[in-house]
From TrEMBL:
Pfam families assigned: ADI
Originating species: BD1-7 clade bacterium
UniProt similarity note: Belongs to the arginine deiminase family.
Reaction catalysis annotation: L-arginine + H2O = L-citrulline + NH4(+)
Gene Ontology cellular component list: cytoplasm
Pathway named in the protein's UniProt entry: Amino-acid degradation; L-arginine degradation via ADI pathway; carbamoyl phosphate from L-arginine: step 1/2
Subcellular location: Cytoplasm
GO molecular function: arginine deiminase activity
Active site as annotated: 399 (amidino-cysteine intermediate)
Name of this chain's protein: Arginine deiminase
InterPro entries according to UniProt: Arg_deiminase (IPR003876)
Length: 410
């Protein structure tokens, strides 16, 4: 019988518990004029996106996966007065809001219910929503519908803000300003929520107030292959500096034996490793061939000194290296479906970004019909979900899920 724990041992072992975030007011506050700054290509039909997300969540529940919604977790945490004070210091600092406005916003939020506070910390707070007026210079220069706390619509992609690696979690310093406040919300959940605070686990990275400068990492780039191997993409959002720091923490704790860093194009279409590659079974990956068939990679292992790293080039031998590590005769590599034009369209629409819920069983968008067909022909069971609106956010089932309880590889 499985004992619940905070542990992710692979990409393909049975998925048991996961964090999702249902889109709501945070996405309703996305407009044509602010969407670019909030990292979206377009505004979404929020009601339809919510229904699609509900379908996704129910699909997981029907398969025995325990689903936890981020806003509910945060609201639970904010019932704790120490957590309230800590999180408001993080989210409403004088450096972010100015000395006078920071005090006023904290006081206003402290008077709310835990659920309302969680909603504002995720969905944002405009000047007109703050009662009264002050002589704060920061508030004075804002219009009535300018954000004092900007919304965090990218919380939808729970994979990125934190990622579990074996018996610990990286609470990720995010690359883009629009996403950096997300990290404080996840730190509050992992430090204060009884679901986590009652369990033994390690923080690999990010659980402090340090300025991370260029050492950013996002969970869409992190894949736990299993048996001591972690794969990390180097693209638009995750930097070599962060990979070295994260690898050092994993090696010092004996949690991993090797990290393979994979070079990605610095382009929005391939912003994370899981947009061009996902593991479906012990011997099976879906790949976008244009990127993954000729990508350069490096193996990182523990060096001779306590803190040193050994880094060796693997050239373009990523899949040979994975084959040897996994102990299989060959890998099944399922390419994005269709001709060259259709492949590019389906990759853009997250055909390669699927969530494996147990070996050979995955969840993906129904509109990527050609890639879904190829997966099924290769023996993979694909459970399709609607995503005409969710997909316009540029994230698939893997992006929208943060596993924190998953079995080791078979």
């Amino acid at each position: 019988m499985h004992t619940s724990r905070c542990y992710v041992g692979s990409e393909t072992g049975r998925l048991r518990r996961v964090i999702l975030h249902r889109p709501g007011l945070d996405l309703e506050r996305l407009t044509p004029s602010n969407r670019e700054g909030l990292l979206f290509d377009d505004v979404l039909n929020v009601e339809r996106a919510g229904k699609e997300h509900d379908y996704f969540a129910q699909t997981l529940r029907d398969e025995g996966v325990e689903v936890h919604l981020l806003r509910n977790l945060l609201a639970d945490v904010l019932e704790n007065s120490d957590a309230r004070q800590w999180l408001l210091q993080q989210q409403c600092s004088a450096y972010f809001l100015g000395t006078k406005l920071a005090d006023e916003v904290r006081e206003y939020l402290l008077g709310m219910s835990a659920l309302d506070m969680a909603t504002y910390l995720i969905c944002g707070l405009t000047r007109s929503e703050l009662p009264g007026r002050s002589d704060s210079l920061v508030e004075t220069v804002k219009g009535p519908y300018d954000f004092i706390l900007p919304p965090l619509p990218n919380h939808l992609f729970t994979r990125d803000t934190s990622c579990w690696i074996f018996n610990g979690v990286s609470v990720n310093p995010m690359a883009k300003q629009a996403r950096r406040r997300e990290t404080a919300n996840l730190r509050a959940i992992y430090n204060f929520h009884p679901l986590f605070s009652s369990q033994p686990f390690d923080f690999w990275y990010g659980n402090n107030d340090r300025k991370y400068e260029g050492a950013t990492v996002e969970g869409g780039d992190v894949m736990i292959i299993g048996n001591g191997l972690v794969l990390i993409g180097l693209g638009e959002r995750t930097t070599p500096q962060a990979v070295e720091l994260l690898a050092t923490a994993l090696f010092q704790a004996g949690a991993a034996r090797q990290v393979i860093a994979v070079k990605l194009p610095k382009a929005r279409s391939s912003m994370h490793l899981d947009t061009v590659m996902t593991m479906l079974d012990r011997d099976c990956f879906t790949i976008f061939p244009e990127v993954m068939q000729s990508t350069e990679c490096w193996r990182i292992t523990q060096g001779s000194g306590n803190k040193s790293l050994k880094i060796e080039s693997l050239g373009e031998r990523l899949f040979d290296t994975l084959k040897d590590h996994l102990g299989v005769d060959r890998l099944r590599l399922i390419e994005t479906g269709g001709d060259v034009f259709q492949q590019e369209r389906e990759q853009w629409n997250d055909a390669n970004n699927v969530l494996t819920i147990r070996p050979g069983v995955v969840v993906g968008y129904e509109h990527n019909a050609r890639t879904v067909s190829r997966m099924r022909e290769a023996g993979i069971t694909v459970m399709t979900i609607p995503g005409s609106e969710l997909g316009r956010g540029r994230g698939g089932a893997r992006c929208m899920s943060c596993p924190f309880d998953r079995d080791d590889i078979d």
